[in-house]
# Entry
Amino acid sequence: MKRKTIMSMPTACFWAVVAACALGIVIGSFKDFEINVALANKTDLGAFFATYGSYFSYCLYPAAGACLYAGLKKKGDGYRLLARALLILGWFMAVYYSNSYNGKAVRALLGYTAGESSAMLSVLSWLFWAALYAWVPFAVICLVDDGNPDRLIAVGAAILVAGIAADNVNLWLKQVASRPRYKYLITLDDPKSGFRSWWQMIPNLAGSNDNFKSWPSGNMTIASMMFSLPMLTDAMKKRSAAKNGIAFALACAFVLLYGYNRIHMTNHFLSDVCFGTLITYLIYSLISTAFLRGTEK
# Structure
């Protein structure tokens, strides 16, 4: 009898992640402000990781597009156009999100100033991200096992759909909570007076003001995409439970490092980080299970 898994890992791993997030939420609910006072300290290294660390997570979008492409190609020539469209979509999503969230830093490196510099510098910043993700689809197409096209389609679709769903749920919850960020609070004469716990919500106060979009962490939504990495390694030609375990361990390490960075760089509180991780992880678990269940025999 085949062992039950969630995102290609034993269910014990699922409950371990949920328990770790729940523990962080409980601790943060009582100690959020004090933890930030102790850990928050902007550094150049922290800023670099905050800008470019998401690259590894966003690589999953073109990888998902490549899985869909490889799976649909095996379905016949009638799916060829759809396969190509989804391949390009996965690559474009990675470029779009990176340029939207982190493009400002790249444009600054190029010396671009809106309204003053040549528009070509802005185009170059976009091409920078386009080139960074261009290799991913080719590598994944070479490595995946197309002997089970239905599974490849399910894996690719799960990553794309869950990623879009988690991002939009996160954006909605930021408006529901409208919680002030720590980096905003420390600009006040009395930071503690402006602090609000995550459950003290004031819906729609944030609007377009990023200072009031602390809960839940959007960057942890991006980082937690890495938990789908074992699904990708499980779709490779030379797959094994050990490789899936290594992929899961790397995902855990990456999420922990990313979570610390969000606190360290004064952007979020511990409960923001844990909620962002938990919400995304649950969305990915639910959607991937729904997509993959029909392909498991």
Notes: The CA atoms of residues 151 and 294 lie 9 Å apart. The mean pLDDT is 93. The radius of gyration is 20 Å. Strands lie at 5-6, 9-10.
